[in-house]
Amino acid sequence: MSENEALPESVEEPYPSEKYSWFVVSILLIAYIFSFIDRQILGFLVGPMKEDLGISDNHMALLGGFSFAVFYTIFGIPLGRLADSKSRRTIIAVGLAVWSLMSMGCGIAKNFATLAMFRMGVGVGEASLSPSAYSLITDLFKPNRIALAISVYGAGIYIGSGLAYLVGGIVVSFVGDAEFVTLPIIGDVKPWQSVFFYIGLPGLMFVPFMFLIKEPKRRGLGKNANAESVPLPEVFAYVKANWRTFFFHNVGFAFLSFIGYGSAFWIVEFFVRTHDMARGDIGKIYGVIVIVVGTLGIISGGFFADKLRERGYADSKMRVGLIAALCHIPLGLAFPLMPNSTLAFIVLCPAVYTAAMPFGVAPAAIQEMMPNRMRGQASAIYLFVVNMIGMGLGPNAVSFFTVNVFHDDSKLNWSLAIVSTVAGLLASFLLWKGMAQFRKSMETKEAMDA
Questions:
Q1: Where residue 348 sits, what CATH number does that domain have?
Q2: Is residue 300 in a domain?
Q3: How far is CA 49 from the centre of its chain?
Q4: What is the span of the domain harbouring residue 149?
Q5: What is the mean pLDDT of residues 142-147?
Q6: Packed helices 129-140 and 146-154: angle between N→C axes, nearest 10 degrees
Q7: pTM listed for this prediction
Q8: Is 407 exposed, middle or buried (0-12, 13-18, 19+ CB in 10 A)?
Q9: Does any domain span residue 72?
Q10: How many whole angstroms separate alpha carbon 367 and alpha carbon 86?
Q11: What is the rounded distance in angstroms from the CA atom of residue 2 to the CA atom of residue 439?
C-alpha cells in the first residue's frame, strides 16, 4: 500500500513492530548525535579560536549562538512544511550531508566572517532533522510510548554534546602544543581547525544509512489522507485558536533551553577561568557527565511523562517540564559558585540531569496536540522559538554580563549563576500557567479526532 493510499476510516493500520520502530529511532538518534557534535564543538574551542582569530567573547557567542540559530530557525519552517507531505528520510539525508560538509568547511576558515558563513550553513542543514524525526517517530509509536521514544531520540543532544567535548579534549591532548596539524589533502591547519574535520567526516559517511528507513503510514489523517499538505491559513488558524498553549509551552521551554545553551557554551571557559583547569581535562570530565547524566535525564523525563499520562494527567509533559525547572533553579545557581572544581563537578551532575529532563517531553507535547499534517510545521515553530531564545540568546546573555556588566572575564561564574536563576524562574512561571491551557488544547484535539 502506498503512503498516501487511505484505509477505510474505521480501520487504523497496525503500528510497525516495536523492534523496527526502535531501529528507526536508533538511526535518527545517531543523526542527532552528529548534529549536536557539530553544533556544540565551538564551546570547547573558545580559547584557541579567540586567540587565533583575535575576537572577543561576544564574537564567539555570535558564532555559537545567533549566527547558527537564525538560519536554523528560519529554514526550519519551510523544511517542517515539507516534512508534513514529502519523504522525511530524504529530507534528513540531504540535511545531514549539508551540515557535515559545512562543519568541515569551518576547518578551513581564516577569519570571523568566513567562519560565520559556514556556521550559518551548518544551521541550514541541521534544520532538516528534528521536524522530520518527530513526525516519523509519532507515526511509528502508540500515543502512550511517544514521549519515551522522542526522549530516546532527544538523548542525541547529550550524547552528541558530550562527545563534542570528549573529542575536543582528546584531540587537544593528542596534539599538545603543536602549532599546526597536517591533514591528508588539506595540508597544515591549526589544531582547533582539525577538530572540525574529525567531527564532520563521520556524519557525511553516515548519510547512506538514512535510506534504511521506510516511510511509515501517516496516522490520524481521516478524510485528508490524500492531501499533499495542509494550507498555511489552516495551520495559522489552528495555532491562533490555541495561541495561549503555544505561547506558554514554547516560551517556557525556550527559557529552559536558554539555560542549557548558555551554560554548555561557556562551561569549559568557566573551569579554565575560575578553577585554572586544563582544557583537555575539562573536556573529558564534562563530556562523560553530559553523555551519562544528560542521557539519563532526558530519557527519565519521557518515562515519567508517559507514566503520568497513563494515570490520567493530560498535561503530563508540561508537568514534567515544570518539575525539572523548579529542581534546576538551586543547582544552576550553586554550581558556578562552588569554591573548587571537585565540588563544582559534583553539583553539576544533578544540574545536568534536571536540565535534560524537559527536552524529550517538550516536542512530544507538540506532537500530541497537533493534527498529523501540521506536526512538522508545529515542530518547526517550536524549534524556531526555542532556538532563537535558547541558542540565539543564551550564550550572548552570559557574555553580556561578563563583558558589559562586570567588565571582567574572571566573573564568568557570576554571569552563569545570574542567567540560570532568572531564566529558571521565568520558565517555571510560564510552564505553570501553561498546564491548564494545554489541557484545554488536548480536549479540543480529542474532539476533532472523535
A1: 1.20.1250.20
A2: yes
A3: 24
A4: 18-207+230-449
A5: 83
A6: 150
A7: 0.78
A8: exposed
A9: yes
A10: 18
A11: 35
